[in-house]
Amino acid sequence: MAERSKFDTVATNYAAGRPDYPAALYDTLATVLGKPLAGLDVVDLGAGTGIASRQLAARGAQVVALELSGPMIEQLAATSPDVRPVRGSATCIPLRDNCADLVTSAQAWHWMDPALAVPEFRRILRPGGVFAAWWNYTQRDSTWEHEQELRIEAADPNWQAVSGPYGKRDNEFGNDDKLTITTHEFRWERTISLDTHLDNLVSKSYIAALPNRDEFLATERAILSEQFPDGNVTERFGTHVVTVILPSAA
Fold it and tell me: What is the tens place of the pLDDT at every residue in 107-131?
């Protein structure tokens, strides 16, 4: 609940600043599924403002977007006409058994208790269905990226505890040897305005929770305005994906 409240305060920034996910990710999902996404029943857990839900719907999937935060799902409903929003928790999904071909969780699985959430996604998946969780993470090995990382570290020495590594909890899907679990990695970038970069930055839970958040953002704006006088910032990302294939019916 504490994590949810952090995002409640920055839902507008989240919608304005968070990046999409690379097209290659969705191509990989289709490959893992062995069929196109078009026409599939998809449930997106922890859907936030609907970034992944909209991308899935744009590829023809029938998407139910499940989100616990009121402000986040309001943003989702206002901008996602082809998605069905449902308010609820991934640990107690208000949907019937065997209703989905694909269950996804973009940038959210690490907030969930796998002991509760894994049985729930397995319950709603059809035999042979796929669960996929993924995360964008920021590359920080250029000079300006590393300098920003040091400023984040100074503001919150514990920030990395909630920033990753994602999708790497031991045995989070149990010890069922009938599951097929694979990982995938993508690298990509986008060039955006400084305002959009700052919206993305403040939408991070560790920045949203800073007691001096406004002062931190003002300092970032001043520093980055000097570093990027044309007002555009290139953000570089990796995307980490975990897919879990359920066994087919006997």
Answer: 999 999 999 999 999 999 999 999 9
Confidence class of residue 173 from pLDDT cuts 50, 70 and 90? Answer: confident
Domain boundaries, the chain: 2-139+165-191+236-245
Q: Where are the beta strands (DSSP E) in the chain?
A: 41-45, 62-67, 83-87, 100-106, 125-138, 180-193, 232-245
Residue pair 86/149 in contact by the 8 Å Cβ criterion:
no
Helices 213-227 & 194-202, crossing angle to 10 degrees?
150
- DSSP single-letter state for residue 36: -
CATH T-level fold of 2-139+165-191+236-245: Rossmann fold (3.40.50)
List, for residues 48-85, the tens digit of each pLDDT value: 999 999 999 999 999 999 999 999 999 999 999 999 99
Contact predicate 100/129, CB 8 Å: yes
At residue 237, the 3 state secondary structure works out as strand
Alpha carbon distance 22, 188 (integer Å): 7
What is 105-172 written as a DSSP string? EES-GGGS-HHHHHHHHHHHEEEEEEEEEEEEEE---SHHHHHHHHHHHHH-TTGGGTT---S--TTT
For helices 213-227 and 143-155, give the axis angle rounded to 10 degrees.
160
Query: What percent of the chain has a predicted confidence (pLDDT) above 70?
Result: 94
pTM for the model: 0.92
Q: Tell me, what's the pLDDT at 9?
A: 85
